[in-house]
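Next comes a single protein record:
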Amino acid sequence: MKTGNSYLDILKMALPIFLGMLANTLVTIVDTAFMGRVGTPEQSAVGYAFMFFLVPAMISMGFSVGIQILVARRNGEGNFSQSGVILRHGLIFLSFFALLTIAFVLFLSDPLFRLVLSSDSLRILVVEYLKARTPGMLFSIMGFGFISYFVGLGNTYPITVSAILGGIVNIVFDYFLIFGKGGFPELGIQGAAYATALAECVTFISYAVFAYFILNPEKYGMRRFTFPQLSLFIQIVKVSGPLVIQHFISITSWFLFFTLIENTGERNLGMSIIIRSLYSVLIMPILAYGSATSSMVSNLIGQGREEDVYGLVKKILKMSVGTLLFLSVFLYLFLKPGLMLFTEDSSLAEEASRTDWILAAALVMMAFSYVMFSVISGTGKTMASLMVEASGLVIYIGYTFMVTVFYPQDITGIWFSEIVYMFFWGLFSVFYLWKWDKVLPKNFFSFPK
């Protein structure tokens, strides 16, 4: 499928991605909200466990973005039958990685958290939740391959449908299993984990049905048997390798951020968990715009239309900045009521709401920075995107250590790190495209009419 570069083309690509991301994110948000009714320790444990699981999830996503780039490029070239072959090779890798993740959680998670967490009670709850969730990890990690396949094809509605199905299953069984309703036992934090695992299984099955039975499986080579090809694995790894490292250091930095906060006190961690829960919903639109950017840029390059990339990016920036500007105003005005959805402790929400101006500013900055960064990924220069993000993260982690270890600050000083990161992330992305990019036309920043 060859994509265009009109506003409608962008919306058709980004909106289903956004809805799918939103439904997936709501799985964790619902867990966090329900746990807020069980107790603050349980809520903090689910939030922290989610941050830990994001490490293997983001590694999987990094590998899958490589799948997305290659699928989009082949479709831009009109080589449609290679799409399914690329996906199947990606799924083989993701299945092995999922099994390694499950083994790590079962046998090594407790020793790890003994080293990094100061609270034994929090450690016990985190490990209990993660071990109960392991049945769904295989489906969740392999699901990233299908998501990238659909985005690469430019056929993104299966992401939305599948994620909504999984979200409904999660909400229903959270209620049943956490609180012991509908004849089910009251399992508390383990119930939240089981509900999430079941939702991940349902979502994966839905992805597979769309890929193998609904979206032209013959055209895209989904039913054509081929033996695994070492050359294709090498090609996928060559594109995905830097992205895997990039996503790993990115989410490890985020995990380290919450670990450093936990060491400043459980109250700061509790505030940060509910802030993250609301913030993660509000950044969904820009994540969707970024995913659409990388896929559409790659598709245009595959069509030999590099000169159209500037016009595409200019339109995406207008849409992303406009959307996030609206959401930032909403966040600034209604942060405390939003935080109260995740906790019954009004004093905790009141104190956390002091970050309103920081989060509002970070949202608008991210609307620009992430799109520009996604342009680099879309060109296929994944090593360059790794270096850009790593440079920003060095500054981000340095600032976080300063405000949590060396010169401890309150919650606003800690979360100011978001503004620091977004500023340097955007700055380094623009500088690379301006000075070093060799794929796009040299007039990328000459503002043509």
About this structure: The chain has one domain: 7-445.
